[in-house]
Design a protein that fits this description.
Elements (H helix, E strand, L loop, with lengths): L5 H27 L6 H4 L18 H27 L5 H24 L7
Helix pairs in contact: 3-4
């Protein structure tokens, strides 16, 4: 297989072979596993407590705000670790220090904004 489309044919063949291996493994699992469904096995399991009532519950929107704030600050923490390693490299000290203070300033503005909007109060 030569030419322009030869590489694509090879990738396609590898994808087909990979999909066949995954499908074969799943089919072998289905054929070889024991199947003995009982009412206890078919009930919903949640933290060791038997389910009570319906499976639908309404959540308050403020919990999503806490989740978004957590994600934002977790991503910020991910950016702090590479900065700490580059900060020690020669020639990057003052530049990375100024950039990180600008970055932390934006984070501080976000915290002040959330605090002023009373998002951070747990009621």
């Amino acid at each position: 297989m030569g030419g322009y489309f030869g590489s694509y044919a090879l990738v396609f063949a590898l994808l087909v072979i990979g999909a066949a291996i995954v499908a074969g493994a799943l089919m072998a699992n289905r054929l070889l596993r024991p199947t003995r469904p009982t009412p206890e096995k078919l009930t919903t399991y949640e933290c060791g407590v038997d389910p009570v009532g319906e499976g639908w519950a309404q959540s308050q929107i403020r919990y999503y705000v806490f989740t978004y704030l957590y994600v934002v600050f977790a991503v910020d923490a991910v950016f702090l670790f590479p900065w700490a390693t580059v900060f020690a490299a020669p020639g990057y000290g003052m530049t990375t220090l100024v950039e990180m203070f600008i970055f932390l300033g934006f984070i501080a503005i976000g915290i002040v904004y959330a605090w002023r909007k009373r998002v951070l109060t747990w009621t």
